[in-house]
Amino acid sequence: MRRIAAELGFEHTTSEAQGYDAIETRVARSHERFVEKEGITFRACGDAVRLHGVVRFGWEAVSAETGDVAGGGSEILVLDETGRIKTDYMFPGA
């Protein structure tokens, strides 16, 4: 996952997407690369917790063909006053 993140142009293994446009861009690039080209699906680990305006959860990248886990990480979302995501911190491999 770290190698692929670097190939997507992320300078660090962790990444921050702040604002709706940045989040949309990251999701679109990830979908194109992982889902469309690599046959990977993503699933939450079921460990989500929320504290006020912050949500943390783990995720796995899974081969759609074999069901094997190809990687994973954790995500921290910061919500705005309406409950929408305003910042998304991704930690591949965490």
Description:
The chain has 94 residues and is an alpha+beta fold. Helix content is 26%, strand content 44%. It is built from two helices and six strands. It has helices spanning 2-7, 20-37, and strands at residues 15-18, 40-44, 49-51, 54-63, 69-79, 85-92. Strands 1, 2, 3, 4, 5 and 6 form a six-stranded antiparallel sheet that branches. The longest helix is centred in the N-terminal third of the chain and has 18 residues, at 20-37. The chain is globular and about 40 Å long. The N and C termini lie close together (10 Å). The model has no long low-confidence stretch (mean pLDDT 87).
Order of helices and strands: HEHEEEEE
Label the overall shape: globular
Total strands: the figure is 6
Number of helices: 2
Structural class: alpha+beta
- Percent helix among the residues? 25-40%
Largest sheet: 6 strands, antiparallel
Poorly predicted runs of 5 or more residues:
none
Which value, in Å, is the CA radius of gyration?
13 Å
How much beta, percentage-wise?
35-45%
Distance between the termini: 10 Å
**Can you give the mean pLDDT?**
87
